[in-house]
Amino acid sequence: MKYVKLLHNPTAGEEDHTKKELIPLIEAAGWECRYSSTKEKGWDKIEPDTDFVAVAGGDGTIRKTALTLLERKFSDKKLPIAILPLGTANNISKSLGITGTVAETITSWKKSAIKKYDIGRIEGLEESHFLVEGFGYGIFPRLMKVMKKVDKEKKSTPELALQTALEELHHIALSSEARHYHIAIDEQDHSGKFLLVEVMNSRSIGPNLELAPGADPGDGHFDIILMPEEARASLAGWVQQKINGEDVPFDFTPIDGSKITIHTEDTLLHADDELISLKEPANVTVELQPGVLEFLVPEE
After folding, report:
1. What are the residue ranges of CATH 3.40.50.10330 in the chain?
2. CATH 2.60.200.40 location in the chain
3. Per-residue pLDDT of the chain (300 residues; tens, 9 = 90+)
4. Which residues are CB-neighbours of 276 under 8 A, at least 6 positions away?
5. Contact, 197 vs 136, CB < 8 A?
6. Which residues is 296 bridged to in the sheet?
7. What distances in angstroms separate CA 37 from CA 40, 42, 43, 45, 48, one per listed residue?
8. 3-state helix, strand, coil in the chain (%, to 5)
9. Distance between CA atoms of 233 and 235, rounded to whole angstroms?
10. Which residues are within 8 A (CB) of 265 and not within 5 positions of it... i.e. 6 or more apart?
11. What is the domain class of 121-289 according to CATH?
12. CATH homologous superfamily of domain 3-111?
């Protein structure tokens, strides 16, 4: 029997995603389950005989777990991560093709495959950061800043939170100023004025916006989105279609790259779901670290 370490964010998901519901589901599928709440001290202590880690939560909880596993000693065995997506956007799980119910996902672990997953190392800020989903400037960090101030009632359910974020994003897309960025992608100059600069590792970002639908987080390169002023109307129109419930693709071609350097006067940025406000402009480098994480994914 294999040992599963369940790391659970008890504030994510609905009532049927509690500790009392999740553990029996895992044990009924033939696993020995050990539980920790990510809201409690010592949640990151993982028993040596653990075979894989299951994360029940949203993108933030997955990122938190992934970075904790990266900090483990080299002598510790590499542990795959199984995702039980309970968050609002679930961008990471969707990029990995994990879309079933909690019960279906747990059952699939028996026949799952290992997926190597790249991350990005971010240098040039006051502290070192890693990206699992994406890193960028412009529209999205501004959306994150606005959403922190939105009334809790407008974020009371995942559906309402996504709808509110889309409505705020539409306003920002129409009103936000394009800024100048000095950008080099694999030593090729791509500088210019942009509304949005995103180094993406997942297909979607923020409120389930698939800016890079062809992205593969294990393909050895990032998908970089540099959106100029002339794309403003198209972006705003696409967001409005999403608000109206229309699931349509956004026609924008990303740039492939594994090392990106950025210098700008813009001091508001994000690394995954972390909003970063700098005291002064910085020269930032984002470099891909290939295949350092492993996830359990459904077999094709």
Report:
1. 3-111
2. 121-289
3. 699 999 999 988 765 689 999 999 999 999 999 999 999 999 999 999 999 999 999 999 999 999 888 887 655 778 999 999 998 889 999 999 998 899 999 999 999 999 999 999 999 998 889 999 999 999 999 999 999 999 988 888 888 999 999 999 999 999 999 999 999 999 999 999 999 999 999 999 989 889 999 999 999 999 999 999 999 999 999 999 999 999 888 888 999 999 999 999 999 999 999 999 999 999 999 999 999 999 999 887
4. 125, 129, 141, 268, 269, 270
5. yes
6. 114
7. 6, 9, 6, 11, 18
8. 30, 35, 35
9. 5
10. 179, 180, 281
11. mainly beta
12. Probable inorganic polyphosphate/atp-NAD kinase; domain 1 (3.40.50.10330)
The residues with which 129 forms a beta bridge, in sequence order, are: 122
Does residue 204 contact residue 214 with C-beta atoms inside 8 Å?
no
Q: Which residue reads 């459904």 in tokens? A: 298
Q: C-alpha dihedral over 280, 281, 287, 289, to 10 degrees?
A: 20
Burial class of residue 172, CB neighbours in 10 A (0-12, 13-18, 19+): buried
